[in-house]
Amino acid sequence: MSDKNALIQPDRGQKAVDIHLVDKDGLEAFLKERTAPQRAAIEAQKFKADGFDHAILPDGEGWAVVAGVANASDLSSWCMAKLAEALPAGTYRRVGGKPGKAMFGWITGQYSFERYRTDPSEEGPRVLLTGEVKAIGAVTAEAEAVELVRDLVNTPAEDMGPGQLETEAEGLAKAHHAEIRLTRGDTLEREFPMVHAVGRAAGRSHAPRMIELEWGNPEHPKIAVVGKGVCFDSGGLDIKPSSGMLLMKKDMGGAAHALALARLIMAAKLPVRLHVLVPAVENAVSANAFRPGDVLKSRAGMSVEIGNTDAEGRLILADALTRAGENEPELVLDFATLTGAARVALGPDLPALFAREDTTAQALLDGGIASDDPCWRLPLHEAYREYLKSDLADINNSGSSGFAGSCTAALFLDRFVPKDVDWAHFDTFAWRPAAKPGRPKGGDALGLRAAWHMLQHRYGE
């Protein structure tokens, strides 16, 4: 994770390299204001004000930068991110305007995950100056939350198992004076039977557990944030092919989102009573692994027939959502890397959003647009509940047809959330298969900023 305090600083007239942001409509006027040597430099570098393109200009005894953006008067989070990756270490200032939202991409564009490199990069930071002093803290907090997700997801399962997730939660609780509750062993089997069943095959070294964190004034509105914490998913006895396991260190991406969102909420002192729940397991294969055809008891008392052991995330979330509902929250948000079907439908960039309340869904979609973290709503279609029928138990964990896989997974979760609770579910990928400016290949937060902006709008003072 980068040193965020060094990347965005108040502009007090420090010496800095000028950055000019120009869109195609403004290029002609920009060129007229330049000197002949500057115009020659622009022409030589074939700068056309295309997005993420830039050119270096002579500027007195030094140099300046001109960069193309889609709209110079309405900057996106990412429009300066490529500069933060490509320019030399130093201090920079946008001229003719404020960086605004682009401060976020300036920070995340300098992210790198180098935990396992024997020769990490020693290149210094690119510092951006801004007069928007009051915004620096909020932008930095969001960037740190996103990079926390990246760090957790990028870490291999051997170093990011249930125990390490517990350690992350403990550090978070200590930093913000929150209460933490850990449930393991025989108590876990009694109180969260499906979490125990899914995780028991991993043995002592990666034993399952339920991690709960509570924070805030009990008189404030109660909200719950739940994150799927499958630290590695072999598929269980319905084992995945080796190619399907390569990215399964990221199956705790929902837990990473939940912890990052909790940190944002607590750091901002949002006036809510927060309950965070992370069921942390490894879905492994051993003699005591749960089996296809087994019937599991849930915390809610419902019986669940196992149609597929590779549909394990919804099982542990079901127990967590049941526990969340017992505190009678007014809002429950959950994050999970739940289905491949969501990725087939929407690709890697768009988390599938499911919500009971239209107003909550719209607020989350609006939050995503405002923060350049878009989501796409899919339906909790009642007719698809029949796909979850079981001949033996109250419900089956795997749909009986190949249709609407993300919808049926969401409908399964819906059965474990009290009917009167406002609930929204993000089926997120938590991974970026190809780099984009400000968004390197690897673990990533998708849906986090959308949820945070919605919560700020709903509960912020």
From TrEMBL:
Q: Where is the Cytosol aminopeptidase domain?
A: 308-315
Keywords, A to Z, come to: Aminopeptidase, Hydrolase, Manganese, Protease
Cellular compartments per GO CC: cytoplasm
Lineage, top-rank taxon, reads Bacteria
Q: Does the keyword Oxidoreductase apply?
A: no
Which PANTHER family has this protein been placed in? LEUCINE AMINOPEPTIDASE-RELATED, PEPTIDASE B
Q: What is this protein's record name?
A: Leucyl aminopeptidase
The residue range of the signal peptide is none
What organism is listed for this UniProt entry? Answer: Novosphingobium endophyticum
Q: Which family does it belong to?
A: Belongs to the peptidase M17 family.
What processes in GO biological process is this protein linked to?
proteolysis
Gene Ontology MF: a single term: metalloaminopeptidase activity
